[in-house]
Amino acid sequence: MQKTGMLIVLSGPSGAGKGTICARLLERNPQLKLSISCTTRLPRPNETEGVDYFFKSDAEFMKMAEEGEFLEYARVFDYLYGTPRQYVKDQIKKGHDVILEIDVQGALKVKDKMDKGVFIFIVPPSMEELKRRLKKRNSEMEEQALKRFATAYLELDFIEKYNYIVVNDEVEKAVKKVECIITAERCRMERNRGMDEILKGGKSL
Amino acid sequence: MQKTGMLIVLSGPSGAGKGTICARLLERNPQLKLSISCTTRLPRPNETEGVDYFFKSDAEFMKMAEEGEFLEYARVFDYLYGTPRQYVKDQIKKGHDVILEIDVQGALKVKDKMDKGVFIFIVPPSMEELKRRLKKRNSEMEEQALKRFATAYLELDFIEKYNYIVVNDEVEKAVKKVECIITAERCRMERNRGMDEILKGGKSL
Fold it and tell me: Where does chain B show beta strands of DSSP type E?
């Protein structure tokens, strides 16, 4: 049975550990495709077009934005970053599961456009632990860490928009939970309609 | 965070392999509780009250049935078998996940009463394979095997009432899928409401 893929969105507050979880998930599951973003910043020496990013001029990017070609986009300092809708849809059509690691604001925009995606909210075991992680990460940027911490509180209000919550107390346990969520979602009835007809028709699944 | 448990219903046509999957699942996950049925048949020498079955007289059983104390019940040859609602609810309240292995008719009755349960339909990889398994099981009962095979066709019509489909091509793979479904369901948003409030309140999850 030829199946289409799914969009899997890993999101949550800064410091919850979505980046680490995403990296380990991709390392262990080579069949998963990471969503490739468009950006207006210049490629760094080690970056490849179509692998790390799709590099665009400001004009190209804005044209795509106007034509609704982004699931979401945002400005980060001087540059624009966006998730191209067509790339994600093409991968899914080919049967690949696409992973998108994104902040809460971005995830909510994606959800408006692709509500059949699997939206996973990564939370820290406690806000105390989140604060510790943020401080560790930004030892010289106390102010920015505090700002991120304040934002995390606000972001918790959107938790109910997601399909799953994964508590990241230990990375390995959290990765296994995300892997299970992907396996389970592949078994969900809504993603397997027509199986009864295939069986009744005398074919194999 | 003190969580309640879930009801996990393993169902599907005779010969799909739900019994084998259930046995291996329980063996490997001692925290799962098997639902214990009530029956009017007499205990066999190796059977213990409250472990294998709750043994009831016909009168006791019928009184329970009239009082709505069964999630479902059915007559099998000369005896009555039923799934006691209270036992299942008590286990769930204590935080245990309860496994119920049951035929399609029974599962549909349970769904009417406990629609927050996780309903998993086990299918064979093909009907040809199902026939082979049924014949193997009932070498001297060709007629009964054919009857079960015909029933399996009819039961496929109810597949959409379930939450998940697991194809049992290899038992080990199927058991792992069911384990993942249980893990994923524990992470589902609807089963974790209030987590944001716990975090905001400065407590640990």
Answer: 7-11, 33-34, 37-39, 53-55, 70-76, 79-84, 98-101, 118-123, 164-167
